[in-house]
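Summary for the steering committee. One of the milestones for this cycle was to obtain a three-dimensional model of the protein with nicotinamide-adenine-dinucleotide bound, which we needed before selecting residues for the alanine scan. The sequence and ligand used are listed below.
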Amino acid sequence: MNDSYLGFANSTLGSRIASMLGLPQPLPLERYKPGQPVIKGGVLIGGSANPQVLNALVAAFKSMDAHTVAHKGLPQWMGLANEAGMMTGRWGIADQAGEKVKALVFDATGLTDSSQSDAIYNFFHDAARSVLPCGRVVVLGRPPEACATPRQATIQRALEGLTRSLAKELKRAITVQLVYVAEGAEDQLENTLRFLLSPRSAYVSAQVVRLGLPSAANPTVDWIQPLAGKKILVTGASRGIGESIAEVIARDGAQVICLDVPQAREGLDAVAKRLGAKALALDIGSAEAPQALVDAALADGGWDVVVHNAGITRDKTIANMKDHLWQAVVNVNLSTQERINDALVGAGALKAGARIVCVSSISGIAGNLGQTNYALSKAGVIGMVQSMAPVLAEKGITINAVAPGFIETQMTAAVPFAIREAGRRMNSMGQGGQPVDVAEAIAWFASPASGGLTGNVVRVCGQSLIGA
Ligand SMILES: NC(=O)c1ccc[n+]([C@@H]2O[C@H](COP(=O)([O-])OP(=O)(O)OC[C@H]3O[C@@H](n4cnc5c(N)ncnc54)[C@H](O)[C@@H]3O)[C@@H](O)[C@H]2O)c1
């Protein structure tokens, strides 16, 4: 659905009126187009004392062909980057800010005590005004739960408050994320940086991502088509977010199996035809669905990725809700996914290094009036991801979820005007996301280079105030 206010606020007259009346002035978000560089502009690198992921950063930025400059607090960056054959330089002269940059990356992994936090202040105080619109900020830390001392865990945990506040302050569609890199997982960084620093993550902000050791080494990835040859099932693919997921992963090289209910056959066939994909008309809520999917996967020689996108809402306050509405939502959105995962894994129908990606919702994080059934199911998806991650890791399979906020689809177009406008504007981007924003996050989790990502739940919500 179109957000006509976004166009109005960015017209000459509209922006003047919006500014006079103090109305929100959302910027059109930059989104990824094939062939673009990962980052359109320079990257300013900073860090605390004893930064631990600089070598991994050098390797990643070299591979991305990114232009980096060093903040005065991290002069060693220039030596490291030069050694790797990268052009670099020092940002700013004396106390003067340097050129505007598209991204800031701060290595905070060396922080062991809150008394060292001035390194953070110095970097972001100097650089906050120098980030271009639609810029990116990434802070790198160590997972607090694995820190050697309580003091170290404390300052590492504190980074969450920093990043979430920066995400609210920087505005102009700039996103800010925190990535906790486990010791030994430094070589997992590139794929996640490529996502978080590029326009692919346009509507992802204030998120905490945990990178761990993969159960098997990541294969070499073609960064243009990271999903080349991968067989990927997408449920609910005839329209909306599912259709967009199918489009994005097909763009990234996947052989897509598009699934939807038999009643959606027309739309399903049209999407599948356009993408050169297979169409599978099946109600995933039916008793025979798990076995039917096992059979389909085995006939394909196994699937590499399953995307559980299909979902329904049947909103009513619980006092007014009929039991069949409760059952239908919990079954389709949650129980079915548990049954399908168990069946596919049990039958060996997922290939080595497989990925399961689920779609939750911020409603499952914050709760929502009239959505006890839906919120239960979507919070359950988070529970499933977190509890299954260690179990599946033993089989080399990862499981992650995205939790969309307000996304412009037929589902949200049906929401009454006032609630729709509130959902759209009450986030740091001042606008709703597009289905493609959810799809890009799913493609990131689906990548063969995402072996270090499991048990993560990442919101695609523009830092929505709901459930913040
Ligand atoms: N649109 C949003 O703002 C938003 C926000 C948060 C979460 N989500 C979640 O994203 C996912 C996609 O949402 P959407 O907005 O594209 O919804 P949508 O209603 O446009 O699409 C959902 C698709 O799932 C299919 N489906 C439903 N039940 C099925 C079943 N039993 N078997 C097979 N297919 C089935 C539908 O036919 C439909 O094509 C859902 O899980 C939804 O809960 C959406």
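Key point for the committee: The mean pLDDT is 95.
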